Amino acid sequence: MVPAVVAGQRPHESGAVDLLAGQRLDYVQLGDALVLGFSGGSRVVIETVARLDSPGGRAVVEPGDRPSDALAMLLGDVVRTALVRDDGELTVCFDGGAELAVGPDADAESWAVAGPDGRLIVCLPGGEVAAWTGPRARVVIR
Asked: How far apart are CA 88 and CA 128, in angstroms?
């Protein structure tokens, strides 16, 4: 069965980003894309510049050949909330007080959230958000 595509619908309206709430950040993979892996099996993939605001200050986090390791400070922290703003920005707030924000990119997909149940939410170029839902399916993000 092909997943249903709900383009233009914000995940917080469909409840899709709620899958991150209460999950602990287990790993961060650095490279051409930044991958955040959570205890419940969900993943956030970042493919553009992100902003990390924490009690210790602000850091710019960017994937690529020389990515920042600032996200390592979040390891073991638990997601309090995750939401998508009207312009397509993904904001993930952690119990420890840090906030990770990934804005839209004019030319490329900037972020994606994948759940272990097959849900996939992607910020398309320009900030439109598309959500795929359906029966349990394997989502592979590399």
From this structure: 6
